[in-house]
Amino acid sequence: MAHAREATTAAGSPPSSGGDAGTSITKTSLRTGGWLGYDEDALYVARDDRIKLRGEDVTRITLRVVEWDLVVMSLLLVGVGGYVSMTGNTLVGIGFAVVGALSLYRTYRKRYELEIRVEGGKSVTVYPAHPKRCHERLAGHLD
C-alpha cells in the first residue's frame, strides 16, 4: 500500500505538532529510503535527517516527470560517441558514449521528482515510490 495512516505519540516519529498526546500522520515511502508524511498542519520528510515543514509555509508543490533537456543531451552524446567510434578515433567515441550513457542513467534515477517549495526560496526535493498519487494527495491536502 502506498499510503499508510499511523498514529504516533509525541515521543514517536515524527514529532507531534501540537500540544496533544499524538497526531495522525499519512505516510508514503520514498524510493531513496525514508518517508514523506503529512497531517493537518505540517509535512514531514524523514530521510537521513527529519524535516518538518509547516503547511502555511509551503508555497508550491511540483512534480517533474523527467528533465528532458538532459535526456536529449545524453542521447546526443551516445550518438556522437557511436559516430566518432565508427568513423574516427574509437577510444574517444567510446568515451563519449559512456559519458552519455552514465548521464542518461543518472537522469532516469531522478525521474518523478517532487519539489516542495517553502517561503524564503528554499525547496525540498524527494522521490516518492508512487509520485503521481503522492502529488495529488499533497496538493489536495494543502489547498
Molecular structure report:
Mean pLDDT is 83; it is low at 1-21. It is elongated and about 65 Å long. It is of the alpha+beta class. The chain has helices at residues 68-87, 90-109, 131-142, and strands at 3-9, 22-29, 35-38, 42-46, 50-54, 58-64, 113-118, 123-126. Helix 1 (68-87) packs antiparallel against helix 2. The chain has three helices and eight strands, in the order E-E-E-E-E-E-H-H-E-E-H. The longest helix has 20 residues, at 68-87. The protein folds into two domains: 3-65 and 112-142, Pleckstrin-homology domain (PH domain)/Phosphotyrosine-binding domain (PTB) (PH-domain like); 68-109. Strands 1-2-3-4-5 form a five-stranded antiparallel beta sheet, with no helix packed on it.
Strand order of the largest sheet: 1-2-3-4-5
How many strands, what sense, and barrel or not for the largest sheet?
5 strands, antiparallel
Strand content: 25-35%
Oligomer: single chain
Q: What is the gyration radius calculated from CA atoms?
A: 20 Å
Number of domain units = 2
Overall average residue pLDDT? 83
Q: Please mark out the parts with pLDDT under 50 across 5 or more consecutive residues, or reply none.
A: 1-21
And the CATH topology of the largest domain?
PH-domain like
Helix content: 25-40%
Which word captures the global form? elongated
The sequence of SSEs as H and E is: EEEEEEHHEEH
Look at the helices and sheets and give the structural class. alpha+beta
Contiguous helical run count? 3
First and last CA, distance: 24 Å
CATH level-two architecture of the largest domain: Roll
Task: Supply the CATH superfamily name of the largest domain.
Answer: Pleckstrin-homology domain (PH domain)/Phosphotyrosine-binding domain (PTB)
Task: Give the number of DSSP strands.
Answer: 8
What CATH first level of the largest domain would be assigned?
Answer: Mainly Beta
Region (Disordered): 1-25
Transmembrane segments: 90-108
Biased composition (Low complexity): 7-24
Keywords: Membrane, Transmembrane, Transmembrane helix
